[in-house]
Amino acid sequence: LSFTINAISGPSLRIYPLSQFAQPGEKIDVYLYFEEVEDESAVTGLHVDIQINTDELEFDTSEYEQGELVTDFTGTTIWPSSPRYDNGSTTMSIDGVADGNGLYGTGSIAKFSLEILGTAGTFNINILGEGSFLDADGNTIEFRSPVDGSVTVE
User: Fold this and answer.
1) Distance, CA of 118 to CA of 64 (rounded, Å)
2) Average pLDDT of 7-13?
3) pTM, two decimal places
4) Torsion of CA 120, 89, 44, 99, to 10 degrees
5) Which own/partner pairs from 51-55 qualify as long-range (CB within 8 Å, at least 24 positions apart)?
6) Residue 87, pLDDT above cutoff 80
7) Cα–Cα distance for residue pair 92/61, rounded to 1 Å
8) What is the pLDDT of residue 10?
């Protein structure tokens, strides 16, 4: 038998991969991902906050890249080369603007790295709130609830 499971329907924002395993001291790559954003829901402006438990995980502020949906975009984007971090570095904020038809599809909009600090357990990578997404007319685009990720430290 052949079948497909589509557990995350869009338009949505998610962490990819949803679940990872790591050892203390390792670094892992995490992607902020658009899921099934149709061209009629194309995003021209966004704001997303990602939160981690800084007792167990740490943002590697030198390891941040624009995702494929941004780098492959044929229009103009205003997309910072690095996100903003709050004072305690528990939250990373990503803001971006795209002209014309905006960003759509399924794929990464950002890649960041986390360092695993030490304790065994499972720790969440949370997308805070619903995020802010605007279309070309400045209207809010409704996304489904974001899908958080997790890291299990062995």
Assistant:
1) 22
2) 81
3) 0.89
4) -120
5) 51/90, 51/91, 51/92, 51/125, 51/126, 51/128, 52/90, 52/114, 52/123, 52/124, 52/125, 52/126, 53/90, 53/123, 53/124, 54/88, 54/89, 54/90, 55/117, 55/119
6) no
7) 10
8) 74
Q: Measure the CA–CA gap between 145 and 140, rounded to whole angstroms.
A: 15
Among 102, 97, 101, 103, smallest CA distance to 77 is for: 97
Pairing of strands 84-85, 91-98: antiparallel
CA dist 48 → 13, 15, 25, 120, 132 (Å): 9, 12, 27, 28, 7
**Measured distance CA(1)–CA(71) in Å, rounded:** 37
Measured between alpha carbons, how far is residue 50 from residues 1, 14, 100 in Å?
38, 11, 27
Give the pLDDT of residue 130: 67
Here the tokens at position 22 are: 């790591």
DSSP strands (E only) in 72-120:
77-78, 84-85, 91-98, 105-116
- How far apart CA 139 and CA 120 sit, in angstroms, is 44
pLDDT band at 100 (very low <50, low <70, confident <90, very high): confident
| DSSP classification of residue 146 | P
